[in-house]
């Protein structure tokens, strides 16, 4: 990518993902003689997005339509060469030898000559191949039909001899008196039969014979013989199985019908003679012609292969040149022609840091094109929103793509991609916590990362390409899954005493089947994660349920608070004090008065070991806020604090709803008053226009603004409850993953192990592996990924992220794959 090349040169400021790069709209006035070099060098730089100044013109009305057409035709010829090379099995050199620069006009002539030569070779080869295939079929007909006639002649000769021997024998008294007369009469009535020979598709041979029989009402005699090996059909050029046929008929009408049926079935007919001498002579002639054609075809293919090899040596170089030139002229068509027709005017967006780089490229273009006048670059002031440009690398690009899939960030608003790098894999790992499964994911990610140079140059399948693109996301998800798996103390659902022995021991032998009340603490607390003694006990599920549910609420409230805090940074950056006072502050008060307080109670309960019922506390905080808490009290003055928080939450709702629309109306009226004041200078007017929000130029509708604010307020109030509940999916999916893993281990692997049979054990191990890979490492991974995606897009980003920007797509010279 261009940004990678630029960053590698040390010319760019340090990468900053939190806000998009500062952009500027620049205008270039380019002399005609240096336009090509200028656009080419800017394309090599890859830091300028051109605007189409000819959007109202059709492609054929633009300045360089003829050049685009020319290079389109050259691209077609190169595609033709590529198809021919693929058919011939010739591979273009990926790294062509360094050769002198090619002139585009010379290349156009050369490509035309090569295409004409190649087309002529193909035409001649097709004609020769057609003749060859016909002669092959003709030879088969001569052989097979010759066998029919020779066998028939042999039988007829034998019958004639038998008749003659009977006639020369002594006549007995029983010999019929009229036999000689009948024989003479039958011989006088003999009719000479005609015949047609050829080949028909084997799969249609029975139908062919049946239709001929019905069409002639049985007045034909048909013989068929299968050809042992498939032959190439002269018409279609495909290898097919055929039968040789001979149809004997009597009369011209029958012949006409048979010929029509042959045409309908695509049967190839060939002439044949009954004379055995002529048959041998024809077979000899056909064999000789086949040998000559084979030699000629082989010579033609060798010549074609040599020509394609010559093309393949420089194909990549030619293809690169044509694609570059085509993209350059396509971009030049976006430029407007000056009135004097001596220069082109271009406008486009570029990062501010790239100004010096662009100027250097313009100077080199003017020097290399021997232009007497250099290109003029000037920055334009505009109220148009610039494109969003984040400089990413191969690690951060996948995380940025996750954010961009929801919506591209508005120009210079806070980018959630910075936090997604950590929070996305962490939320995934909470639902996928198992360090055994995490190691499997880590190995899969490392395979892609180690082989990334090789795989990046190959064409992968859709799923494989998607997985390869997210290899660093999978790597981070694997690291965090190993971390959370160590906290949950689960390795394919099996606990290990990795960091210390368990802190608990059995009070007596019966405690194994009892609850944890039968356990006594005999050692210091387990230093990291869940004590392994909890796994397998009757209290495992209630304990882990409580732990994971409360962790889900704490993490959810923390991430939603982060989202609201980012809205404060946005408001500060864009100098929008209304959003600070009437959006950030009341939202923080409302969320933390309810769910921030709940998070505090959870932490206090963990720290103090209290038995307070937090469900009861939160429900009766709304239903009976003045009642005494009794045993549910966690700290002094709790009831007073709850009353204050409840009132704060109630006050924050109208605080969000009412003041902002009226203040926006007041600001709009003040701006309208300022619009009639005299401006001091043109520069001031341009700067004022640039600073104004785009909404300032639209008609202000108070009712629309009020309704929008009301919808926003209702959405936040209801969303605070639903979003917090939505984070409970972390607990639910973590529990499901753990239970599924436990079921596969206990009901498959351990069950097979208990039979003490090697075959059952092998089968059980195979089933366990396939279940683990298919369900836990594929389906569960996809499920946890999608749920983490939803938590980021909906619960986190809707607190501050507008995502209504558009991406920065700089002009970059196309390099063929």
Catalogue the unreliable spans: 1-15, 181-185, 676-697
Count helical runs. 24
Largest sheet: 5 strands, antiparallel
Shape: extended
Radius of gyration: 43 Å
Give the termini separation. Answer: 13 Å
Helical proportion, percent range: 55-70%
Subcellular location: Membrane
GO molecular function: ATPase binding; proton-transporting ATPase activity, rotational mechanism
Membrane topology: Multi-pass membrane protein
Protein name: V-type proton ATPase subunit a
How would you explain this protein's 3D organization?
The chain has 817 residues and is an alpha+beta fold. Helix content is 61%, strand content 8%. The chain contains 24 helices and 13 strands. Strands 1, 2, 9, 10 and 11 form a five-stranded antiparallel sheet that branches. Strand 9 and strand 10 form a beta hairpin. Helix 11 (417-431) packs across helix 23 (729-753). It is extended. 27% of the residues are buried. The model is unreliable at 1-15, 181-185 and 676-697 (pLDDT under 50). The chain crosses the membrane at residues 426-450, 471-488, 551-569, 581-604, 640-658, 758-779. Belongs to the V-ATPase 116 kDa subunit family. It is a multi-pass membrane protein. Pfam families: V_ATPase_I. One of its GO terms (cellular component) is vacuolar proton-transporting V-type ATPase, V0 domain.
């Amino acid at each position: 990518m261009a940004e990678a090349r630029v960053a590698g040169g040390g010319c760019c400021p340090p990468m900053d993902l939190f806000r998009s790069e500062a952009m500027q709209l620049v205008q270039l006035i380019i002399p005609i003689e240096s336009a090509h070099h200028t656009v080419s060098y800017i394309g090599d730089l890859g830091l300028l997005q051109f605007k189409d100044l000819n959007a109202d013109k059709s492609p054929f009305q633009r300045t360089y339509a003829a050049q685009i057409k020319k290079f389109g035709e050259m691209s077609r010829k190169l595609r033709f060469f590529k198809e021919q090379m693929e058919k011939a099995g010739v591979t273009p050199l990926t790294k062509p030898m360094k050769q002198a620069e090619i002139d585009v006009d010379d290349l156009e002539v050369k490509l035309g000559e090569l295409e004409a030569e190649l087309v002529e070779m193909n035409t001649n080869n097709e004609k020769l191949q057609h003749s060859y295939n016909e002669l092959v079929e003709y030879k088969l007909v001569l052989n097979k039909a010759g066998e029919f006639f020779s066998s028939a002649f042999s039988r007829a000769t034998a019958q004639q001899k038998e008749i003659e021997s009977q006639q020369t024998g002594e006549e007995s008294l029983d010999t019929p008196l009229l036999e000689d007369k009948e024989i003479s009469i039958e011989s006088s009535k003999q009719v000479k039969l005609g015949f047609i020979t050829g080949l028909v598709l084997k799969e249609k041979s029975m139908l062919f014979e049946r239709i001929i029989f019905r069409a002639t009402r049985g007045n034909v005699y048909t013989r068929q013989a299968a050809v042992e090996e498939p032959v190439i059909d002269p018409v279609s050029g495909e290898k097919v199985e055929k039968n040789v046929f001979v149809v004997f008929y009597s009369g011209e009408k029958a012949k006409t019908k048979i010929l029509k049926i042959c045409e309908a079935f695509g049967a190839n007919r060939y002439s044949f003679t009954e004379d055995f001498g002529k048959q041998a002579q024809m077979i000899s002639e056909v064999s000789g012609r086949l040998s000559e054609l084979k030699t000629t075809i082989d010579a033609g293919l060798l010549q074609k292969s040599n020509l394609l090899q010559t093309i393949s040596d420089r194909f990549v170089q030619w293809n690169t040149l044509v694609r570059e030139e085509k993209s350059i002229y396509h971009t030049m068509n976006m430029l407007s022609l000056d009135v004097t027709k001596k220069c082109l005017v271009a406008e486009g967006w570029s990062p501010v840091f790239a100004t010096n780089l662009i100027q250097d490229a313009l100077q080199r273009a003017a020097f290399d094109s021997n232009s007497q006048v250099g290109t003029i670059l000037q920055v334009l002031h505009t109220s148009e929103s610039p494109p969003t440009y984040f400089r990413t690398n191969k690690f951060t690009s996948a995380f940025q793509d996750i954010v961009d899939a929801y919506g591209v960030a508005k120009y210079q608003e806070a980018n959630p991609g910075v936090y997604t790098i950590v929070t996305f894999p962490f939320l995934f790992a909470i639902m996928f916590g198992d360090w055994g499964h995490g190691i499997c994911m880590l190995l899969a990610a490392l395979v892609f990362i180690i082989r990334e140079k090789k795989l990046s140059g190959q064409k992968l399948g859709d799923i494989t390409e998607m997985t390869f693109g997210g290899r660093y996301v999978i790597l981070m998800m694997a690291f965090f899954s190993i971390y959370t798996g160590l906290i949950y103390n689960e390795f394919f659902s099996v606990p290990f005493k990795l960091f210390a022995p368990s802190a608990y021991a059995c009070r007596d032998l019966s405690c194994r089947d009892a609850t944890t009340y039968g356990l006594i603490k005999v050692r210091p607390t387990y230093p990291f994660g869940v004590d392994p003694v909890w796994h397998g006990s009757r209290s495992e599920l209630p304990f882990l349920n409580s732990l994971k549910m409360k962790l889900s609420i704490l993490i959810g409230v923390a991430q939603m608070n982060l989202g609201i805090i980012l809205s404060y940074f946005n408001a500060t950056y864009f100098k929008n004090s209304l959003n600070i006072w009437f959006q950030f502050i009341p939202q923080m008060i409302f969320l933390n008065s309810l769910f921030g307080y709940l998070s505090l109670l959870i932490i206090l309960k963990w720290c103090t070991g209290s038995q307070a019922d937090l469900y009861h506390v939160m429900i009766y905080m709304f239903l009976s806020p003045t009642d005494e808490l009794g045993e549910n009290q966690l700290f002094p003055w709790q009831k007073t604090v709850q009353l204050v928080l409840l009132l704060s939450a109630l006050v924050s709702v109208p605080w969000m709803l009412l003041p902002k629309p009226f203040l926006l109306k007041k600001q709009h009226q003040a701006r309208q008053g300022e619009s009639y004041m005299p401006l001091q200078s043109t520069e001031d007017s341009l700067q004022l226009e640039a600073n104004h929000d785009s909404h300032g130029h639209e008609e202000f509708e108070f009712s629309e603004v009020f309704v929008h604010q009301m919808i926003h307020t209702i959405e936040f109030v209801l969303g605070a409850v639903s979003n917090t509940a939505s984070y409970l999916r972390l607990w639910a999916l973590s529990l499901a993953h753990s239970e599924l893993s436990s079921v596969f281990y206990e009901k498959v692997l351990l069950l097979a192990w208990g039979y003490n049979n090697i075959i059952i054990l092998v089968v059980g191990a195979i089933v366990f592996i396939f279940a683990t890979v298919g369900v836990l490492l594929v389906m569960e991974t996809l499920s946890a990924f999608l749920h983490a995606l939803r938590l980021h897009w909906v619960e986190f980003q809707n607190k501050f992220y507008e995502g209504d920007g558009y991406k920065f797509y700089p002009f970059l010279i196309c390099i063929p794959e």
